[in-house]
Design brief:
By secondary structure, the protein is an alpha/beta fold. The protein folds into three domains: 244 residues, Metallo-dependent phosphatases (Purple Acid Phosphatase, chain A, domain 2, 4-Layer Sandwich); 93 residues; 80 residues, no CATH class. It is built from ten helices and 17 strands. The strands form four sheets. It has a six-stranded mixed sheet with strand order 4-3-2-1-12-13. A five-stranded mixed sheet has the order 5-6-7-10-11, with no helix packed on it. Helix 8 packs antiparallel against helix 10 and helix 9 crosses helix 10. The longest helix is centred in the C-terminal third of the chain and has 24 residues. The radius of gyration is 26 Å and the shape is elongated. Bound molecules: manganese (II) ion. Manganese (II) ion binds next to loops.
């Protein structure tokens, strides 16, 4: 007889997915964190786990108090009805709001309030099971915390498995979000560390249960791939299983299509269909499938195809469509990334003295290794230009840092390839 836990990373109730097709924006909340949370609760009930553990940042911000209250209460009540414990810690986002919510919700247990390490023993609900674990937790005491919370970790205790639940920034010594080190985590001698804060999940296994749980649902297109909850099974005092179960209702993903040799729309459509069917067959083998897929189409390879034809490839961005071979999943194109090279070899083009020739020469320079002097000079010129533009008054309010050199190189390459294809298409029309 075993003990089962369901561990969830950053949930961020209060966030709503953006970049959805126009026809779905009114229902955006159905595809966000609150839906992922209820899916996690259903999974906990279905798997008959003993406790649900949450590693901080359950709620996006202090402004989301009522949204947090409604959803946490609904989930906590359902877990309570099934005699499943709900144990949480605060992260930097919900440091203020989560303790207030917990005070309103007697079914939720907050561990390590105010940055004080605390532990609780979780016993298997099955009386004949005889399995137990000790769970350690530490909650953010303030929005920023510059010290290593492991510095005053009291150390493991008891003969049972000792697990840790912590919201922290690993191996980022100057972080304002509870910096810890990998060696510090290892030196604590626990049997598992279930971490929150970083949104990309680590590849955790029963043999290596130390790392980030990741977001429960992808909060934007940058958080691509399977997102969900982690099921941990403890059997005879050992971690027997630790598996990732994708439960997010919306999944962001990428499809790369090699367009080499494809110059007509039907050929490209055939390749996209093939890629969608592969994706469908992969998804059909999963335990829980997403309802909605937001896809970034990455077009690569060598082709003389016209940009207008490429624009026709992505289905209408205002709607979502049933996925071939998996019609219960809707898909839409979030964005097309065009990274195509002309079908003519750049070296041949670069022999020419006209505009395509000059552009081909620049592209060849861009392809050189990162420390090449001519490449550096080209990128410095681009960086200077970018700085001049971004310091103009009308662009100054745009958020985000200035692009780094490699980002600039990517933009230059993509726009030069685009321009080159347009020039060559124009030539062949004459
Ligand atoms: Mn965080």
């Amino acid at each position: 007889m075993s003990l089962k836990l369901l561990a969830l990373g950053d949930l961020h109730i209060g966030r709503t997915p953006t970049r959805l097709p126009a026809s779905l924006t009114a229902q955006a909340a159905d595809f966000g964190p609150a839906s992922a949370w209820m899916a996690a609760v259903d999974l906990a009930v279905r798997e008959s786990v003993d406790a649900v553990l949450m590693a901080g940042d359950l709620v996006e911000s202090t402004q989301d108090y009522f949204e947090g209250l409604a959803h946490l209460q609904r989930g906590a009540q359902k877990l309570r009805e099934h005699n499943i414990r709900l144990i949480v810690i605060t992260g930097n986002h919900d440091v203020e709001v989560l303790p207030r919510l917990v005070d309103e919700l007697p079914d939720v247990e907050l561990l390590g309030r105010n940055g004080q390490w605390q532990n609780t023993v979780i016993d298997s609900r099955l009386t004949d099971a005889n399995e137990r674990v000790r769970l350690w937790g530490w909650s953010f005491p303030s929005r920023h915390f510059h010290d290593d919370p492991l510095a005053d970790f009291p150390g493991r205790s008891g003969a049972e498995l000792n697990l840790g639940l912590l919201h922290c920034d690993r191996d980022q010594p100057t972080s304002a979000y509870a910096p810890v080190t990998s060696s510090g985590l290892a030196n604590a001698q626990l049997d598992a560390w279930l971490l929150g804060h970083i949104h990309q999940p680590d590849a955790l296994t029963a043999a290596k249960p130390f790392g980030y749980l990741g977001t429960v649902s992808g909060l934007d297109a940058g958080e691509s791939g399977a997102r969900g909850a982690w099921l941990m099974v403890i059997d005879e005092g050992q971690i027997a299983e630790l598996s990732h179960i994708p439960i997010a209702p919306l999944r962001w993903d990428q499809i790369t299509i090699d367009c080499t040799g494809a110059e007509q729309l039907p050929v490209l459509e055939g390749r996209l269909t093939e890629a969608l069917r592969e994706l469908a067959s992969r998804l059909n083998s999963e335990r829980v499938v997403p309802q909605l897929l937001g896809l970034r189409l990455h077009l690569t390879g060598e082709t003389a195809i016209a940009s207008e034809t490429l624009a026709d490839l992505a289905p209408n961005l205002d709607t979502a469509l049933p996925l071939p071979d998996a019609p219960h999943i809707q898909w839409f194109v979030e964005r097309q990334v065009i990274d195509l090279r002309p079908a003519i070899a750049l070296e041949t083009l670069a022999q020419r003295n006209d505009q395509p020739g000059l552009l081909a020469q620049k592209l060849l320079i861009l392809q050189r290794p990162a420390n090449d002097a001519e490449r550096d000079a080209l990128l410095n010129q681009a960086a200077l230009h970018a700085r001049t533009v971004s310091s103009q008054g009308r662009w100054q309010h745009l958020p985000g840092p200035t692009a780094d050199t490699e980002q600039l190189a990517t933009w230059l390459r993509q726009s030069a390839q685009d321009a080159l294809r347009a020039m060559l298409a124009n030539e062949s029309n004459h």
